[in-house]
Structure formats: structure tokens, C-alpha cells
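Input chain follows. Return C-alpha cells only.
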Amino acid sequence: MGWSWTEGIPWPGFSGVLEILVLAAGFYFTIQFFRGTRGAQVLTGLVVVLLLFTILTRLFHMEALYWLLQRFSVYLAVALVIIFQPEIRRALAELGKQHVFGITAGERSLVDALVQATTLLSERKVGALIAVERQIGTRPIQETGKPIDGRVTPELLATIFHPHTPLHDGGVIIRDNRIVAAGCVFPLSQQDEATRTLGTRHRAAIGLTEESDAIVVVVSEETGTISIAFNGRLSRGIDEERLRRTLTSVLHRSKQKKSRLDRVRDRLTLSPAAAGPGDGSGEGEEDVHG
């Protein structure tokens, strides 16, 4: 009987296969979560450095350096928590979200008002920055602006962003189908690509979606181009139909009402570092995912 090369390979049992699947899923979702964020490059750099040092120490038998690496791994977990604190906070907030199937009449009315207002502002080349809060609260961002508490209408949004009004140079936050604050200061994205190619207004839109699950609509003051930021990514050159379809799709996955626990969580949301938004210019497009 001939010998097969597979006879010398130790095959994993059921628990081994399960561990492989769990690790593969963990790596996959980690890569998907960090993809396109400022933490992706940091994570890649750390992995490359650790792999390089591990290979060198094992290949050239650097026992002292290998011992130091083993001791350093004890503190690596703490370092990762500090470095990736914004991403970890966002991931935990995502786990606490509740999803429902179907969009309410109020959300449908909100989509119509947003589409009408955005189209009007785009035609007039009036810059705008409009964020729709979903499950993750934005109370710290709201406190940087002025409280409004008004029903969302195209006329009110157009008035807020009129160039000669005091609140035009800032962002609007919408929660529960009402404008809760205007003239808000959104956190600026630190992504290298955004920093090089985009203006302040578009970077502010991306920055807020990196800190929360809000969807942000942007109108460029220079070109009138409509853009959408969601999950840390920006999509430019949006027409009216695509804007309506995207807003409906995102709000479709939002819960209809916030529970009392969610409201308590909103009050406890930590405040991110922020900078003031202005107009956005620059080219380049990234698809909206999620």
C-alpha cells in the first residue's frame, strides 16, 4: 500500500474547526470595521512591526529580544485600548443598537423634506451640513450649537443655511424628525485622503460619521454638489433619486422609537474632539456602505 503525504498531517477535530471559524470571522469583521478609517493604518503598522520583529527574533535566535517581545505583549492590550479608543467605543455602541423592519410615516416625511431642501440648496449653491441622528446620541455635538427644536421643513433648513444668517456656517442635527440644534461644530476627520482632497465641510461630515452612526448630507458651496457621509465614508455627486434611495435605506434600519435606556445612553455619550466646519471642496469619491 502506498504512503500518502496527507497521513502525516494532524487534522483538527470539531473543536479545532470551530476555533478556526471563530478566529477567521473575528479577523474578517475586524478588517471590515477598520477599513477606510484612520485606525486602519495604525493597525496595519502595528501588525507589520510585530510580525517583522517576531520573524527576525526566531530566525536569528535573538533570545533577549524575543524575551522582551513576550514581556511587551502583556502591555499591548492596554496600548490597543488607548490607541483605538474611538473605534472601540463606536463598535460597542453598534452592538447596543436595535433594528426594526420598516420605515415609519414620520421617517418618510423626513426623507421628503431632506430631499427637497437639499435639492433647493444645491440649485442655489448654498453650502449645507445636515446630520440625521440614529441610535448613537450626538448630545455633545448639539451643545456646540444653538437649540432649535423645530419640525423639519425644507423652508426652515433653507433659512438656516442662508449665507446671511448667524447659524449658516455650521451643522444641523436632526433627531426624531425634528431639528434639535443648528450651527453645531462637527469633529473633523483625520483620514489622510480626506485631509488632502476634501474641504472642511466634507471632512466634518466624515468626522461625525466616524464618531457615530449618523448619516450626513453635504452640499458644496462652491459647486452645489450633493454628498452623503455614512460609516466614515463619503459619496459625492449624488442626484435627487439616489439621495432619496440612500436616506430611505439607512433610515429603514433605524428603530422607530428610542427607549428610555437609549436616552440615558445619549446623555452619557462622551464628547469627541471637534473643530468648526466650513465649506467642502475637492474631488474623489468613496461609496457609501452599510
